Amino acid sequence: MKLILAGTWLGKGGFFEGILKSMHFLSSIQDIKKFTPPFFLLVPYTLSTQTLELEIKNEGEKIILAELVGFKPYNPKKSSGVELKLKGAILSDEEYKERIKKIKKYIEKGDVYQINLTNRFEFELKGSSEELFFNFYEAQPVPFAFYLELEDFYVISGSMELFLEKKGNVIRSKPIKGTAKEEKTLLLSEKERAENLMITDMMRNDIGRIARTGSVEVEELFKVEKYRTLYHMHSTVKGITDKSLSEILSSTFPPASVTGAPKRRAVEIIDELEPFSRSYYCGSGGLVFSEEDFTLSVLIRTAIGRGDRLYYYAGCGIVWDSVEERETEEMHLKVEAFKRAGSLVFQR
Length: 348
What we know:
Anthranilate synthase, Chorismate_C, 4-amino-4-deoxychorismate synthase activity, 9 helices, 18-stranded antiparallel β-sheet, p-aminobenzoate synthetase, globular, alpha+beta, Anth_synth_I-like, 26% helix
């Protein structure tokens, strides 16, 4: 078992390996209360069954909790080369577009305002999954990258999205909504700004459930950040809370940016339209140092593997004025960095 983190999780450069004390597999968010930090936490999207009281597709995923003794610097081994072969996607481009049309019909009926629609890509890996993680990071450095290797599967995350960060009694979320190849395109898109505002409002709502009355505010709105293969737009929502981690997760999970509005109905429609379980993708993972100090990412840009088989997920937020072709192009754009990770030999 191994946990490797980008140093940005700890406010540092380089990479660090978590010194593991013990691993636990939990069935309920409430079980988290039994453990004393520090620990690394991985909450599958499928735990939405508990927080939203819904039945959705799942493969029996558990919350993963790794108790930690500390961290030590980790130097990646020299690259020997890995290769990723794309075996195919669960949904063809035409099937993905048809589902976008179905979502727009739900929007027209007033069921929802926005839905995040995902596709799942299957890859065959030749080489080391750990090396693939480092290649993925070099293809697109992000603040919330990690590699978790267990006995029978592994998780590679290249997430740049903050779900929840708590420092003292201040809690923040930075939902991402808005993607483009060029910064100007993103800044001038009324559709992307409207979508971002919708999700920001959802996070205000979610944080408002656990925050002191009157303490919720939007610190940033429509901020664009550059990454190697694309640009993203995010906003920042802040509140003041004295609630516990389990109380906070129970009120805010799953992340609004990867579901839609309103959340419960969006998750129902997602389960209807996506012919696979999201598993840990679109869940949350991160470090918990204490009840007052934790950082949790949204598990976007995340692959789940068993041996030489990996599943990588990518999706888009669909609204009434979404254009099927453009959304499908955006979905493929989000796979680009992962493909690069499997076709290049990086010099370390």
